[in-house]
Specification:
CATH topology of the largest domain: Aspartate Aminotransferase, domain 2
Number of domains: 2
Radius of gyration: 21 Å
Bound molecules: pyridoxal-5'-phosphate
Strand content: 5-15%
Number of strands: 13
Distance between the termini: 59 Å
CATH architecture of the largest domain: 3-Layer(aba) Sandwich
Order of helices and strands: HHEHHEHEHEHEHEEEHHHEEHEEEHH
Shape: globular
Helix content: 25-40%
Number of helices: 14
Length: about 375
Amino acid sequence: MSLKPVPHIEALEEYAVTSQDVWRIEDPRAAGRVLKLDWNEAPAVHEIVRERLAEFLARPGSINWYPDVAALDLSKAIAEYLGLSPLQVLPFGGSDVALETVARTYLGPGDQVALVHPGYDNFRIYAESCGARIHRVVPGPDPLTFSMSAFIGAIRALGPVRLIYLIQPNNPVGYLAGRAELIALLQAFPDTAVIVDEAYIEFADGEPTAAPLIAQFDNLFVGRSFSKAFGMAGLRLGYVVSHHRNLAHLRKLRNGKNLTMFAQIAGTALLQNIALVRQHVERVKAGRRSFTEAFRARGGTILDSQGNFALLRVADPQEVIFRLKLEGIYVRDRSTMRGLEGMLRLTFGPPEVMARVLTAFETMPAGLWQTAR
Ligand SMILES: Cc1ncc(COP(=O)(O)O)c(C=O)c1O
């Protein structure tokens, strides 16, 4: 007889991760041609990261010593970037881990959790693994439209809710709630932990972060990532911003050994050279604009998005994914998500990257992807 896990882990529905096929491409020329547009990563590494890591590797202790568990330089650089105190930021090995720690700190068996739907599904795993009861809340008349009053109303109908999870901008839909709407949410649920996951906020017009609201609302947790605009998904770095009293509790669970010096050094270097990140973001936003316009002009359907990705509705999702893959272009199938029938999610890169994607669509039979004509 095999050992049984605790009941809520046994019942847990696994996160549906797609395989990272690109790691199995052995021919370096083929690997170099790949456009990996399926996980909302950056298309390239900021060169300063390679340089700083090469310098660091040559230093004594770089691999054989444990990292700086307090991550002091990094915390100061993040605080400066956001105009906060280092006591209000806590770095982790990825924003996933940061938000998992929030879940483990505040959730127990039977607690109700409201997750925006559609949405990034990873946080559900952490909440469920604490025994919490999950409610997927569609915040509008249909899954592609966001209305804060609908979101608040649907959560109120659940009774007492211990934690709310909102994504800004929403992955995969791409919408963004405004500052006044966030304030309305925080005011409506003053005794509920509210997570605003800002993994993609750098790509939103005006970078409308909720971070300054922590001064007013001590129930707010803002999650941020270095995997997207900062192009460091493989190094694993993210952080949470909240009232320092909340972070004192999170710190009890945090294992500082899990945040490598490689991640700390790379993250600090980019924050000290933030203009490089901003230039990259502007180029991706230019790619977002040019592709969205051109795709629509050719009879394609693509949603407006505030992230480095967007949903496309195509006539034959499986065939489109297959044909793009033959061109070395990887996109994410979202057509099996409730409310996203016929949809693919595509990560944006700079205009030259998006021109290649457009050509790949143009060379496919139009009947496979055109839905707007
Ligand atoms: C909304 C959202 N939050 C968090 C993450 C994970 O970020 P990280 O790589 O910092 O763990 C992702 C990754 O795709 C995401 O889409």
